[in-house]
Design goal:
The chain crosses the membrane at residues 12-32. Residues 32-59 form a coiled coil. This protein has helices spanning 7-32, 38-62. With 63 residues, the chain is mainly alpha-helical. The chain has one domain. The chain is rod-shaped and about 85 Å long. 0% of the residues are buried.
Length: 63
C-alpha cells in the first residue's frame, strides 16, 4: 500500500480503476458489435450501385 494513503482511499481508487476498465471494455465491445455483418451490407450496396450504373449506361447508349 502506498505511503500516505489510507486503506479506504486505496481500495476506493482501486475499485474505481477496475470499474472504469470494465466499463471501457464494455463500451468498446458495443461500439464494434454493429460492424458484424458489414461485409454483406457492403456487397448489397455495391450490387445496387452496379445495377444503377448499368441502367444509366444503357440509357446513355440508347440516346
Amino acid at each position: 500500500m502506498p505511503y500516505g494513503i489510507s486503506t479506504t482511499q486505496y481500495f476506493t481508487a482501486l475499485a474505481s480503476f477496475l470499474a472504469a476498465g470494465i466499463a471501457g471494455s464494455s463500451i468498446v465491445f458495443h461500439m464494434y458489435k454493429p460492424l458484424e455483418g458489414i461485409e454483406k451490407q457492403v456487397e448489397e450496396e455495391k450490387e445496387k450501385l452496379r445495377e444503377e450504373f448499368t441502367k444509366y449506361c444503357e440509357k446513355k447508349a440508347g440516346k
